Amino acid sequence: MDGRTVYHVEPEDDLWRVKLAGDSQTEYADTKESAIARAKQLARRAPRAQVVIFDEDGRVEQEIYFDPSTERSV
User: Fold this and answer.
1) What is the rounded distance in angstroms from the CA atom of residue 15 to the CA atom of residue 74?
2) Labelling 27: which of 11, 21, 35, 67 has CA 20 to 30 A away?
């Protein structure tokens, strides 16, 4: 890894989980959109971060990278 703080947004039962990769820190949201918004909020606090969004089948749907003054999605 390149030193980024990585947050995963993934479904769990009827909720969406925001999880810091490699850590037990977890938050839950009622909707995918609110989970993504929370993950982005957390990621913006880190010098370099990434949000990885998974679909209902566990596949990576989108990756968003945060650098000091940039937010880009792939």
Assistant:
1) 24
2) 67
* CB atoms closer than 10 angstroms to residue 7: 28
What's the distance, Cα to Cα, between the start and end of the chain in Å? 17
pTM for the model stands at: 0.88
Q: What is the 3-state secondary structure of the chain?
A: CCCCEEEEEEEECCEEEEEECCCCCEEEECCHHHHHHHHHHHHCCCCCEEEEEECCCCCEEEEEEEECCEEEEC
**Which tokens is 42 given?**
């957390």
Per-residue pLDDT tens digits for 31-40: 999 999 999 9
